[in-house]
Amino acid sequence: MIRILGIDPGSQRTGFGVIETDGSRSVCIASGCIRAGGEELAARLRTIYLGITEILDQYQPHEVSIERVFMHRNADSAVKLGQARGAAIAAVAVGGMPVGEYTPSQIKQAVVGRGNATKAQVQHMVKALLNLDAEPQADAADALAMALCHSHSRQSLARLGAAKGMRRGRFY
Questions:
Q1: Annotated catalytic sites, by residue?
Q2: Domain 2-167's class?
Q3: What distance in Å separates the CA atoms of residue 17 and residue 146, rounded to the nearest whole number?
Q4: 3-state class (DSSP) for residue 2
């Protein structure tokens, strides 16, 4: 089983989701939000960094997935999102784990089957795919969706590698 941490960065709320997967089925280990309130951006970034560090220590993931920055309606929001993302990646980098980066449409495509799915559709599919009792909160659902997207991407790459090896007469 491989353990994957998905991170949905945000300057006010950073969602996280930890799954374990064997390639054919995935199980939710934990999910939630790091709440970084307050006026000072530096203090919020510190909260995100320390929160991700605590999650890494507690759940010991093997790999991490995070959403790529996309352009918001306003540039200030995009900059703050990028800074929150940077704080999360810095915490992961200190731990030396590999990081997969995915666009929102890649994540939605992997989980829902459509790159333009709504947040409600993502929440519903995360609940179904992980066999949860209730739909997770939106930021946590997005983070779990990132972890699932990373899991699916790993499987596809593994299949490609195996196919390449079989063509050469080798098996991995």
A1: 8, 67, 139
A2: alpha beta
A3: 8
A4: strand
